[in-house]
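Q: Focus on the chain.
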Amino acid sequence: MGYTKSAIQGISWMTGLQTVIRIFTFLKIAVLARVLTPNQFGVFGIAALLLALLEILTETGINIILIQSKETIDKYLDSAWVASIIRGIIICLGIVISAPFIASFFNTPQALGIIIFISLAPFIKGFINPAEIIFQKELNFRTEFLFRTSLYFMDAFAAIVFALITHSVYSLAMGLIASGLLEVILSFYLIKLRPKLRFEKEYLREIFHKGKWVTGYSILNYFGENSDNIVVGRLLGATPLGIYQMAYRVSITPITEISDVVNKVIFPVYSKIDEDRQRLKNAFVKTFSINTIGTFILGLIIFLFPKEIISIVLGQQWVSATDVLRVLAIFGIIRAFTSPASVVLLSTINQRYLTYITFARLIALLIFIIPLVLKFGIIGAGYAQIISTLATIPVILYSLNKIFKT
């Protein structure tokens, strides 16, 4: 059976989705960057780091497993929902308990309130119907488009309205909470498959067994993605952290736009053709070519016109992010080149190779991040990210060679 037509249709819908998402994201950032200060963004960034860490530490990988499965998702559904609810409660309590220690670690006592407030987001999202993954599994990207568009609209709308009224850092968390609540409602309203509060031990064991490499990869990837934020926040403070994170977002978001669209569409397609390695290899080459052309063009624009982009998108109070934005543009291009490999590894259930790749990146980042930040400030964090991504290339080539030779 051919999946080219489905992939093309999926890419069209996901391109539309990413376009809509970026419009909402652009409006959200453009408004909030003019209403809130870099320090407030840095304070929220500290809370977001803790939230992301606990989400990763409790990751089951159930969505990836459900897409990989050749069977229907019915047998896993109840167990997956119970596991999701328990996970949400654990994350919520973990954030509340950890809040004083995190605020103290970053020497930012004003972060305590927003850290506790953001704990509502994972608690609410724990009740999302796991069956929403059926949109991707059945390549129903039109419904996925409408579903995700409504969520991102709610996130942007709630954050902007709350920020305009209060000028408070809590507005950043309000978007997450409002979006999570809407996702819970829509996941039950739109999908006929609805879970019940029951579980079977063997299914839970299967979920956790299959997801162990996903969890390991996710933990390593968290520190690979956030060690720079942790070091910048700890050594330089909340305001430099806010500036660095905003520059990172402005540089990475458009550069990874194409790869995110293609990867999301191609993952379920790869999963259906993973046993035909030559066909899989051909599909990978096409995907890599699209990523290479698109990301290089976008990255070059950001590298050449960082000050103009900062002024248009964020406003003059963020102009100090210009130099680090140029460095992060280079990082974004390299990262987008390497991202198609992760989809191949996940679709062929070779998560261990993905873990090795992420481990290589993390080791390189940990070696260079502190010396470079101490010497160059937030620009040094960008240099460290470039070095760490380059360090993964030999491992990626080795992993792909093993997969395509099988």
